[in-house]
Structure formats: structure tokens, C-alpha cells
Amino acid sequence: MIYSTKILVLFSIFFWVGFLPLIQTQTHQIFPIGKTPVTAYSSSKGDTTYYLFYFSLPNLIKSNAFIHVEFPQEFQTDLISPNVSPECGYMNPDYNAVPCIIKDRKFELSMGSLQTGSYQIIVGKVLNPTSYGASSNFKVYTYQSQGLIDYNENLGNIAFSDTPSKFFFF
Questions:
Q1: pTM over 0.85
Q2: For residue 33, which phi and psi values (nearest 5 degrees)?
């Protein structure tokens, strides 16, 4: 009887230690939508532009919901030009502006609440890098107050091109 109890306890420990990471990963994953979940209105180096992010959220957040969109290291820390205010919003199906701030290459969007399902987030007046051909991965997180709910640290990347004036001579 004592041996069977010990075996049952050990089996339970191994079961939960082995499967707990899988359960946590599946319940907190933000899923990208489409082949290009990260899109820039302009991919020209040095342009000021808007970025669209397409993803699906698995968890409902009823209040105090925030979306953080983290830009890759290739972007300058404040993301926008001096004396320019960021613009943020989402499509559902029309454009809805939301308050946002920028901290350390992150747009923090104050959403109020978040439903499960598809989202198109728009952040704007971002200054594209001038000396990189492509970015590393964008990341997106959802929070309720300060608590992390969902995340994706590999949402996608962007390729940058020279401005057309560098190719054409007039």
C-alpha cells in the first residue's frame, strides 16, 4: 500500500511537471493572422509611417486591458520624431482611436476591455530605421492592469527599402 501511494505521487509529479509548460504556452499564445501579420504603410528607410498588426486573442479581458506592441531593436528607442504625438487605434470594422504612450520601443495601447478573436491594431507616426535592410521580430502582449495575459514574441518582421529617389535620377 505504501509503495503504490509513492508511485502515484511520483507519477502525478512527473505528469504535471511534464505537461504544465505545454498547458501554459497554449493558453497564452496570441496567434498571427495571415502571411503578413505585420505590415507597414511605407517600408522606405527613414520614412514616418503607420504599422498594422493582425492577430487573434484567445482570452477575454473584461477591464483594465492593455496591448503592448514592442518594436525590434533596429528602431530608435522613442520610435517617433521629436515633437510628434503617437497615434493608435484598431479596426472593428471601422477605425477606433485609443489612448497610447511609447516607452522603450513599446506602444502601450489602453483598450479598456478586449474580446476574444481577431484584431487589427494600428500604430502611427513611427520613424523607420535608416540603416537596416530588415527588422528582427515584433512582439505583442496583452495585460490586465499589470498582469500578463497573452503574448507572441515572434509576430513577424519587416524588410526596409531605399527611398525611390535614390534609384531614379531626374
A1: no
A2: -115, 130
